[in-house]
């Protein structure tokens, strides 16, 4: 079954950086628009960035624009989320899936905790 697996999360201090990876198996990411989503404790899942399969154009929500960057490496069948200048409010479980509609089963995500 095709699926996406997230990795790269961890504990980081405010102002720090992380790079998340979304690796596809059983399918190829270049067939789909891929998005990164996050779910903070007690809140719903929100989309924060996506990348087009056609021209690689990207969109980032205002709360992460200028700090986070979504990118794809089709040769590695992987989509990345580079996160800089992390804030405590970025603490969440991060997921990837097709966008705007999730076509793959949701994975377990990767936990990002921003705390001093």
Could you characterize the architecture of this molecule?
By secondary structure, the protein is mainly beta. 0% of the residues lie in helices and 48% in strands. The chain is built from no helices and 10 strands. Strands 2-10-9-4-5-6 form a 6-stranded mixed β-sheet, with no helix packed on it. It has a 4-stranded antiparallel β-sheet with strand order 1-3-8-7, with no helix packed on it. β7 and β8 form a beta hairpin. The protein starts with a strand and ends with a strand. The relative contact order is 0.32. The model has no long low-confidence stretch (mean pLDDT 94).
Q: Mind telling me the C-alpha Rg?
A: 13 Å
Order of helices and strands: EEEEEEEEEE
- What is the tally of beta strands? 10
Structural class by sheet pairing and helices: mainly beta
Distance between the termini: 40 Å
- What is the helix tally? 0
How would you characterize the largest beta sheet? 6 strands, mixed
Q: Would you identify the regions where 5 or more consecutive residues have pLDDT less than 50?
A: none
Mean pLDDT: 94
Label the overall shape. globular
Give the strand content: over 45%
Percentage of residues assigned to helices: under 10%
Order of strands across the main sheet: 2-10-9-4-5-6
């Amino acid at each position: 079954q095709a699926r996406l697996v997230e990795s790269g999360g961890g504990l980081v201090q405010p102002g720090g950086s992380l790079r998340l990876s979304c690796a596809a198996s059983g399918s190829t990411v270049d067939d789909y628009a891929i998005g990164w989503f996050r779910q903070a404790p007690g809140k719903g899942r929100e989309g924060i960035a996506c990348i087009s399969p056609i021209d690689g154009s990207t969109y980032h929500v205002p709360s992460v624009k200028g700090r986070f960057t979504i990118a794809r490496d089709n040769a590695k069948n992987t989509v990345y989320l580079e996160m800089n200048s992390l804030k405590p409010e970025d603490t969440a479980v991060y997921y990837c899936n097709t966008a705007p509609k999730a076509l793959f089963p949701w994975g377990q995500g990767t936990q990002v905790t921003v705390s001093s």
